[in-house]
Design a protein that fits this description.
By secondary structure, the protein is α+β, with helices and mostly antiparallel strands. It contains 10 helices and 15 strands. The strands form 3 sheets. Strands 13-14-1-2-6-5-15 form a 7-stranded mixed beta sheet. Strands 7-8-9-10-12-11 form a 6-stranded mixed beta sheet. The relative contact order is 0.16.
Length: about 350
């Protein structure tokens, strides 16, 4: 094969992209390459296309252009956000009254529940969010060996949120001003389902508070334990997604599914997310929405998602700065039901499960 360096680079990227599309979500080890920042799947071929135009390498331009088109779904860009910007009204006019029947919900990975931050500012920030419903992940502390230690901070929760009911399980918390109609067992082991009575008797909204396991342990990749952990967690993730799909499919109410999925558009598991419900992200108004890391210069990944099933409508959606209290941005949405929820609840739906702690 002959050609200049731009052609060689374009072919190398095309080979990588082909392997990515073939192996992503099908081979556990490909979880590692899929952790690349998704915008690279657009930026790299676009840069090669420009270089090919500058150098006049037609073949390189053709290869780079094809790679750009084929890899477009992996880049995490949301063109629809350019024409759907209602979330900006939340920022510019925060005093605007909410639409009748809407509730304000936030979802946030708390990064091990103020394990490394002062609890005072942490709880003050939670209060400042002033949400009707909180879906909070990582209500635990990291032991730094791949495991976590559950914690008990209920007394402070009661004092900080006297008007909220709380359901706690599996390192997850759902706090709600709305009456809790039911807590329901889930097949997914890292998900907390809570059914909530919407204002004005408009029906029941089911919330799925989700935390999909992260792909790897932060240990040296030269150690066999690193790859054992990746393989084990790939299996854990597959079971979580399969369980969550069954949970959502079996839910008789409109649902909002939100949390830390530890999945970007470039990870094969994004296919599972797309089947769960409608992605609300175009409402952010961001062409390239990101939620992790929130630090300047590191905002390349979107790991947090908000999805809805028919009957639930998201009116606004934005990411909020966590002010250094977590490595995840806060997801904030307003949501309502589009019509009455006539689905009846079975006795199993309304029974509190033994492993779910609930207080008001």
């Amino acid at each position: 094969m002959t050609g200049g360096p731009v052609l060689w680079a374009a072919v190398a990227w095309a080979v990588f992209l082909g392997a990515h599309l073939a192996l992503n979500g099908r081979w556990w080890l490909w979880l590692l390459p899929s952790l690349l920042p998704p915008p690279l799947f657009a930026a790299v071929p676009a840069a090669l296309l420009v270089l090919a135009w500058v150098t006049g390498e037609v073949a390189a331009g053709a290869v780079a252009g094809a790679a750009l088109l084929i890899g477009a779904r992996q880049c995490g860009l949301v063109p629809g956000a350019l024409v759907r910007r209602p979330a900006r009204a939340l920022v510019r006019r925060p005093a605007r009254p909410p639409e009748e029947g809407t509730v304000r919900l936030v979802s946030w990975n708390t990064q091990h529940w103020c394990q490394s931050t002062d609890p005072g500012p942490f709880y003050a920030f939670l209060r400042e969010l002033d949400a009707d419903v909180y879906l909070l992940q990582e209500y635990h502390h990291d032991v730094f060996d791949g495991t976590y230690r559950l914690i008990d901070d209920e007394r402070r929760l009661r004092a900080t949120f006297p008007g909220h009911e709380a359901v706690i399980a599996r390192g997850l918390i759902t706090l709600s001003r709305l009456p809790v109609a039911a807590t329901v067992e889930t097949a997914a082991r890292r998900t907390l389902r809570v059914d909530l009575e919407m204002p004005g008797g408009r029906g029941v909204l089911t919330t799925f508070n989700v935390h999909i396991p992260v792909q790897l342990r932060l240990i040296s990749p030269l150690r066999p334990a690193f790859y054992r952990a990746v393989r084990t967690r790939a299996g854990d993730r597959a079971r979580e997604y399969a369980g969550l799909a069954r949970d959502v499919a079996g839910c008789p109410h409109p649902a909002l599914i939100a949390g830390d999925f530890n999945t970007t558009a470039a990870i094969g598991d994004a296919r599972h997310i797309a089947r769960l419900g409608a992605d609300a992200v175009p409402l952010t108004g961001r062409l390239c929405p990101t939620s992790w890391q929130p630090r300047p210069g590191m905002r390349w990944w979107r790991l947090d998602w908000v999805l809805t099933t028919p009957g639930a409508r998201v009116h606004s959606y934005r990411f909020r700065d966590p002010r250094g209290l977590s490595d995840h941005s806060v997801q904030e949405v307003t949501v309502s039901l589009t019509g009455p929820d006539h689905a009846s609840r079975t006795p199993a739906d309304t029974r509190l499960r033994p492993h779910l702690r609930h207080h008001s």
